[in-house]
Amino acid sequence: MKLSETFTYSGADIDAVYGLITDQAFRSEACEDQGAIEYEVTVDGGTVTIVRTMPAEVPDFVKKLTGSTVKVKQTENWRDPGDGTRVADVKVSIIGQPAEMLGTATLTGKGDTVFTVEGNVKVSIPIIGKKFEGEFHKQIVRSLKNEVELGLAKL
Questions:
Q1: Which whole-number Å values give the CA distances from 146 to 26, 44, 79, 143, in the listed order?
Q2: Burial grade of 116 (CB within 10 A; 0-12, 13-18, 19 or more)
Q3: β strands within the chain, DSSP E
Q4: Domain boundaries, the chain
Q5: Which of 15, 50, 110, 134 is deepest in the core (most CB within 10 A)?
Q6: Model pTM greater than 0.85?
Q7: Residue 40: strand, helix, or coil
Q8: Long-range residue pairs from 101-107, CB within 8 A, at least 24 positions apart, any chain
């Protein structure tokens, strides 16, 4: 299932947004803001790794597979392609489940920064995989929106 989301950080330049999303304290605050039961955030240069346990806010048919919580690992490998933009390879996976999103995140713009996340959500479970993909997709989008809203408030 394709994922494509675009957000705008009005009045914030790329360096400010990049500084925010690669800040360990901000990403930890975002985990707390989203209701993570437990989390670990690691920032090493341009690599951000977040492992968080979240309440499974999904329909019952999904909870039968995941239980009442899900443990999610998110890795972003940010690089500067040299033209002032920033691009990251992104992987989000549910630990212990055949579910992942592989894609890219991009920061572009002058004056306002446009943050775009594009990828493919895949759940490799026969018969119900497509339904599960839809729920996983919704959770990723909700997490992105919440983190951008928090970021806008900080900038």
A1: 13, 23, 24, 5
A2: middle
A3: 2-9, 38-44, 47-55, 69-79, 86-94, 99-108, 113-123
A4: 2-154
A5: 50
A6: yes
A7: strand
A8: 101/3, 101/136, 101/137, 101/140, 103/3, 105/76, 105/78, 107/14, 107/17, 107/18
Choose among 71, 81, 19: nearest CA to 50.
71
Distances (CA, A) of 132 to 36, 80, 97, 98, 108: 21, 34, 11, 10, 32
Contact, 26 vs 50, CB < 8 A?
no
Give, in order, the Cα–Cα distances in Å from 32 to each of 27, 40, 141, 147: 9, 11, 17, 11
pLDDT, tens digit only, all 155 positions of the chain: 999 999 999 999 999 999 999 999 999 999 999 999 999 999 998 999 999 998 866 556 555 666 678 899 999 999 977 788 999 999 999 898 888 999 999 999 888 999 999 999 998 877 767 777 887 888 899 999 999 999 999 98
Supply the CATH classification number for the domain 2-154. 3.30.530.20
Residue 17, helix vs strand vs coil: helix
Q: Measured between alpha carbons, how far is 79 from 81 in angstroms, rounded to an integer? A: 6
